[in-house]
Amino acid sequence: MEQVNLNLNRQKSEQNNSRYIYLALSKLKTSEIKALNEIKETYGGFSHLLGLSVEKICSDTGLKKKIAENILTILEDFDKKGEEEESKLKDIGADFITIADEEYPPLLSELIDPPIVLYIKGKLPDISSPRIAVVGSRNADSYGLEAAYRISKGLAQEGCSVISGMARGIDGASHSGCLAGNGKTVAVLGCGIDVVYPPEHASLAKKICNNGAIITEYPLGTTPFKSNFPKRNRIIAGMSLGVLVVQADIRSGSLSTASQALEYGREVMAVPGSIFNQLSIGTHGLLKDGAHPVENALDVLRFLNLKEPQQNKKEEKTNLEGQLKLIYDATDGFKTTSQIAEELSLPAGALLAGLSHLESEGYIKKCNNGIFIKLIN
Fold it and tell me: Is the peptide bond before 219 cis (omega within 30 degrees of 0)?
């Protein structure tokens, strides 16, 4: 029995050492991490680096001396540093997984430059659950927020997981919608796992951890530098089957997520918006370039071949007749009350009564700018 325990302890120690090696190597610069491919191809793994000289590594792999020196330097006391970092993570209810672990997102591992370590708080959704990214502007309006919320909720109800970046605006609405649909959601951060950004999403972060996970490739204490977010976006795109952009102006970071999705062979979708809205410039640009237009969760599922075509839920819901149907149909195109009245030539009282009834029944919604929209789903 004692011998068995010794063997188990030795095996566990070896597994930890392997994890700690990955953890140490994840601290390398991007250019140095790329060199790890040469090392893995040469030695079949990274543990073989221990005990080698700089000259031997350069001779075997063809790497430059400076890179080999940096790699060996960062591996100094890797086990001790790894234990200390793991302990700090445990203290805040977090952990880390490596690219060699079974829990690592399989789609993400296919990238040319996947993160070799992911810090995680919560639990990643089961890989059998399709993962869809829903992203967009931090400065979204009520139309965009409603669209992101309802589409994400619909995706959750259809068994999908929603991936986003926990930023203000569309990202937050996407996570909230998924949670409202009793789904699992994943937030990818551009900072350390111990840093809540933006601060007002502290409550949302807790909910995400209870019904999904928050992940990042950045070590503890990393602040949300602007330069971190393009790298963060590649994870959102990389671990998803497709990326849906809800609202984006011409400078939106969500466009970089869409661009990376195309680079990785993922599908790109976009929610159409008003031609008079600055937040539609980016999404309409994507649509012109071939992105698939999306109005609801079923559109997403059908485009990704996750659901067979069937009658649209919006059509099923609109079992309206007479004047109510006329008013409902007229809300297409982001119209105000006066525009609808002019189009239908209805008395003001009858129109307001009809709009009020449709809104109370969940068919339409009046946005802050006075424009009526059909509710998606």
Answer: no
CA atoms within 13 A on the CB side of 73: 10
- Residue 89: what residue type? L
pLDDT at 112: 85
Helices (H), 224-346: 228-238, 254-263, 281-288, 297-303, 313-317, 322-330, 337-344
Q: What is the pLDDT of residues 226-241, one digit of tens each?
A: 989 999 999 999 999 9
Looking at residues 175-188, what average pLDDT do you find?
A: 97
For 129, other C-beta atoms within 10 Å of its C-beta total: 14
149, 176, 285, 359 from 180: Cα distances, Å = 9, 6, 30, 20
Number of Cβ within 10 Å of residue 138's Cβ equals 17
Q: How confident is the model at residue 37 (pLDDT cuts 50, 70, 90)?
A: confident
> Which pLDDT belongs to residue 355?
87
Question: Phi, psi at residue 153, to the nearest 5°?
Answer: -65, -45
Domains of the chain: 2-83 (no CATH), 131-187+222-310 (3.40.50.450), 314-374 (1.10.10.10)
Euclidean distance between the first and the last CA atom of the chain, given in angstroms as a whole number: 61
Tally the C-alpha atoms within 13 A of residue 21's C-alpha that lie toward its C-beta.
Answer: 17
CA geometry: angle 177, 227, 166, nearest 5 deg: 10
What is the model's pLDDT at position 107? 85
d(CA 162, CA 58): 44
Q: What is the mean pLDDT of residues 31-35?
A: 81
**Whether the predicted pLDDT of 310 surpasses 70:** no
